[in-house]
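[User] At your convenience, examine this fold.
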Amino acid sequence: MKDFIFDDFQNAVDECLLRHRSLLDIITKLQESQGRINRAVAKSVTNCGCIQIDPNKQPLSKDNNIDNIDIETFRKNLQDPLKGTICDNCRDVIEREIGNNLFYLTSLCNLLDLNLYDIILKEYDKINTLGKYTFR
């Protein structure tokens, strides 16, 4: 069922994209849309203030000795640098910008004859196979 939704989305994007159908247009629009996502998130911090970022350095471990630490202990010691919750207005803006980004990402897939759903499945399988050891 989910692959139908992805395929339908990919087909709808293909039908909608008329003006910027060249590779250069698509990749520059994709990059621009990523910048708009970054700006929308930054504005949530700087303009709205609904979220705050704690810029402090993350401790590696309680004694700062990474040689004797396992990955679960390391994960438990990490602190979330994001405080607060995005407001409805900021959420709408960020969701709209991510949607635009998905549109251009899907356009790139269409132009290169790639299936977005297959790409997501491959990434999902890689994450499930490597789990926490993907280190991204």
Remarks:
- Residues 2-50+85-130 form a domain with the Helix Hairpins fold (CATH 1.10.287.1080).
